[in-house]
Structure formats: structure tokens, C-alpha cells
Amino acid sequence: MSAMPSPFSEKPEETIGALGEAEIIARARAAFREVSPPPPRGIGDDCAALPAVPENAAAAGTTLRRLVTTDSVVFGKHFDESVSPENAGKKLVRRNVSDVAAMGGTPSDAVLALVAGENLSAAWLEAFLRGVAEACAECGVELSGGDVSSAPAAAFFSATLALTGFAENPLPRAGARVGDFLFVTGTLGGSLLKKHFDFRPRVAEGLFLARAPAGTVRACIDVSDGLLKDHAALLPAGTHAEFDFAALPLSDDARALGGDPLRRIFCDGEDYELLFAVAGTEADAFERSWRERFPDVPLSRIARIAAGTKNARLDAALSGARAYEHFS
């Protein structure tokens, strides 16, 4: 995979240090002009004044819950020089929107915070901001403002997005029971090739889950840290998941990368698919309704929740593989 131009420049005149804060903000305003409303909701005041609920929902008398999430991308951690600045910006927005999708919500407004070394290339930053703007437009997000700060060290870049959304019936992680089935959208593994930045958040699918008949979909999470770690977040205390290994959806990119397919599926991470629990008695009817609504979105029934914490079959299959940890 060929490397993109470095985010950092050795020529002072090409860096954000030569621009100064006011010019950086001016360029951000220009990049976000299509996705930032006028003040007080958009860029321009000390805070953004957001509507309590979307105007169309208020008119319909819908009761909504506000969702709030935040996520970051750090150069050298979440992307490197093999990823274009535009795609790095898109990844930042999309991974936040994926969290809202996992709660069965619709994304709304966001604020952006940047921390960068003064040798960050001004051209690279503008391309990153364009990627943020394009993903906001793609996902229906309005950019309401943000912050920019210098890093204490050179060759550093981090961007954090705080995103709000709304949901009629937020889907929790807790709520699954013994006998429920675990389903996953799409395919898993191999995200390193491109899916970690080139993916579509499952917003429509999350809304479908949240609007399923009461008691059908009991819990949901997006697969960001890998199936091994994320499936455990849905399990009630004293239970485990009995996986159907043959039903696990291995991606083409995982096949291209090679290696143990189960490790790819369980440990690669950054798949950004929805993993959710469906009541055992409703699973067949749910699958039929899904295929009618999303005929082109793969859905796999991959496990059933069972009593007991021992999962000898999974442990043996992965033979000591570790789930992703942020600080290991």
C-alpha cells in the first residue's frame, strides 16, 4: 500500500504554525460552509444553541431521547501515512455515527476539537477538514463549532468529534437473556486493508432494530474493538455465547490478508458492523423481516447465549488470542 504525503512538513511556511489560530479557524469555516448552519446553532458563538428536539419530530409530537457520543482519531494509532487525509477525516465522523447507529438513533449535531504539532502541513489539514465535511454531509450531521489547540510536541495530530443524535427507543448493550441469538450485519475481519476508514455506518439498520416489535431486539453494539471483545459486552453475567463457526461471515479482505480466519473475525476489529441480540422465539420472524427490508445487507445468525461462563470451544479455537485493549 503506497504511502500518502506526510501530515507534517519540514518547511515552516507550509505548516499551521505559519497560519496562526485565526487563519486555521477561517479555513475550517470555509471547509464546513455546507454542513454548518448559521449561529447560534453553527460556528460563531461561545456555545452552539441546539434545538431540544428536531423540528420535524417536535411537530409530530414524538418523544425522543438525546444521544451524545465522542470518539477520536490519532495519527499513528487510528491511521498512518497509508491513509489519505480526506479518508482520515471521514473515519472520524463515521466511527462516531456508528455509535449512534448502534443505539438505534439518528445523528444530528457535532463539534470538532483538533490538537496538532505546529509542523502539521496546512494543506494536509485542509484535506482532512474536507473529509470531515464530506462525511458530515453524507451522514446528515451539522458541524456546530469546535476548538483548536497546539500540541506540546511536533509530529502529533489528534482530532476528536463530539456528536449528538436522537432516538425514540435507544438500544442498550444490557438486556440480552439466555436463549437469545446473536446476529451481525455485513462481514468481519480484514479491516486493515481499507474498511477501518471506508465503511458505511449502519444508521438505517439501527433504526430498523429500534423499531422492531417490543421484546424482539434486546441489546446492540457496534463492532469496533473486535468480535471477541464486543460480543462479551452483550452477555448477561454468568453466560457465554455458543458460536456457530460456520455461520461467521468472513470478509474478502480477510481472505486476502490470509492467516487464521477465526482470528481475523474475532480480533481484527474496526468492522463497524452491528452486533445485536434477538429473542430466541422471535429470531425466525425477525430474519424474514430483515431480508424484506434489507435484501442487499448480509445478516448472519452467529451464536446463541447460554448459561455458564466457560466457553471451552471458543477458547480452544482461538488458542490464547487476546481481545483488543487500548492500553496494552
From TrEMBL:
<feature type="binding site">
    <location>
        <position position="71"/>
    </location>
    <ligand>
        <name>Mg(2+) 2</name>
    </ligand>
</feature>
<feature type="binding site">
    <location>
        <position position="147"/>
    </location>
    <ligand>
        <name>Mg(2+) 1</name>
    </ligand>
</feature>
<dbReference type="GO" id="GO:0009228">
    <property type="term" value="P:thiamine biosynthetic process"/>
</dbReference>
<feature type="binding site">
    <location>
        <position position="78"/>
    </location>
    <ligand>
        <name>substrate</name>
    </ligand>
</feature>
<dbReference type="Pfam" id="PF00586">
    <property type="entry name" value="AIRS"/>
</dbReference>
<feature type="binding site">
    <location>
        <position position="99"/>
    </location>
    <ligand>
        <name>Mg(2+) 2</name>
    </ligand>
</feature>
<feature type="domain" description="PurM-like N-terminal">
    <location>
        <begin position="44"/>
        <end position="154"/>
    </location>
</feature>
<feature type="binding site">
    <location>
        <position position="324"/>
    </location>
    <ligand>
        <name>substrate</name>
    </ligand>
</feature>
<keyword id="KW-0460">Magnesium</keyword>
<keyword id="KW-0808">Transferase</keyword>
<dbReference type="InterPro" id="IPR016188">
    <property type="entry name" value="PurM-like_N"/>
</dbReference>
<feature type="binding site">
    <location>
        <position position="222"/>
    </location>
    <ligand>
        <name>Mg(2+) 3</name>
    </ligand>
</feature>
<feature type="binding site">
    <location>
        <position position="46"/>
    </location>
    <ligand>
        <name>Mg(2+) 3</name>
    </ligand>
</feature>
<keyword id="KW-0067">ATP-binding</keyword>
<feature type="binding site">
    <location>
        <position position="225"/>
    </location>
    <ligand>
        <name>Mg(2+) 5</name>
    </ligand>
</feature>
<feature type="binding site">
    <location>
        <position position="71"/>
    </location>
    <ligand>
        <name>Mg(2+) 1</name>
    </ligand>
</feature>
<comment type="similarity">
    <text>Belongs to the thiamine-monophosphate kinase family.</text>
</comment>
<comment type="pathway">
    <text>Cofactor biosynthesis; thiamine diphosphate biosynthesis; thiamine diphosphate from thiamine phosphate: step 1/1.</text>
</comment>
<feature type="binding site">
    <location>
        <position position="46"/>
    </location>
    <ligand>
        <name>Mg(2+) 4</name>
    </ligand>
</feature>
<dbReference type="InterPro" id="IPR006283">
    <property type="entry name" value="ThiL-like"/>
</dbReference>
<feature type="binding site">
    <location>
        <position position="99"/>
    </location>
    <ligand>
        <name>Mg(2+) 3</name>
    </ligand>
</feature>
<feature type="binding site">
    <location>
        <position position="99"/>
    </location>
    <ligand>
        <name>Mg(2+) 4</name>
    </ligand>
</feature>
<comment type="function">
    <text>Catalyzes the ATP-dependent phosphorylation of thiamine-monophosphate (TMP) to form thiamine-pyrophosphate (TPP), the active form of vitamin B1.</text>
</comment>
<dbReference type="InterPro" id="IPR036921">
    <property type="entry name" value="PurM-like_N_sf"/>
</dbReference>
<dbReference type="GO" id="GO:0009229">
    <property type="term" value="P:thiamine diphosphate biosynthetic process"/>
</dbReference>
<feature type="binding site">
    <location>
        <position position="69"/>
    </location>
    <ligand>
        <name>Mg(2+) 4</name>
    </ligand>
</feature>
<feature type="binding site">
    <location>
        <position position="224"/>
    </location>
    <ligand>
        <name>ATP</name>
    </ligand>
</feature>
<feature type="binding site">
    <location>
        <position position="70"/>
    </location>
    <ligand>
        <name>Mg(2+) 1</name>
    </ligand>
</feature>
<keyword id="KW-0784">Thiamine biosynthesis</keyword>
<keyword id="KW-0547">Nucleotide-binding</keyword>
<dbReference type="GO" id="GO:0009030">
    <property type="term" value="F:thiamine-phosphate kinase activity"/>
</dbReference>
<keyword id="KW-0418">Kinase</keyword>
<dbReference type="GO" id="GO:0005524">
    <property type="term" value="F:ATP binding"/>
</dbReference>
<dbReference type="InterPro" id="IPR036676">
    <property type="entry name" value="PurM-like_C_sf"/>
</dbReference>
<dbReference type="GO" id="GO:0000287">
    <property type="term" value="F:magnesium ion binding"/>
</dbReference>
<feature type="binding site">
    <location>
        <position position="270"/>
    </location>
    <ligand>
        <name>substrate</name>
    </ligand>
</feature>
<feature type="binding site">
    <location>
        <position position="173"/>
    </location>
    <ligand>
        <name>ATP</name>
    </ligand>
</feature>
<keyword id="KW-0479">Metal-binding</keyword>
<protein>
    <recommendedName>
        <fullName>Thiamine-monophosphate kinase</fullName>
        <ecNumber>2.7.4.16</ecNumber>
    </recommendedName>
</protein>
<feature type="binding site">
    <location>
        <begin position="146"/>
        <end position="147"/>
    </location>
    <ligand>
        <name>ATP</name>
    </ligand>
</feature>
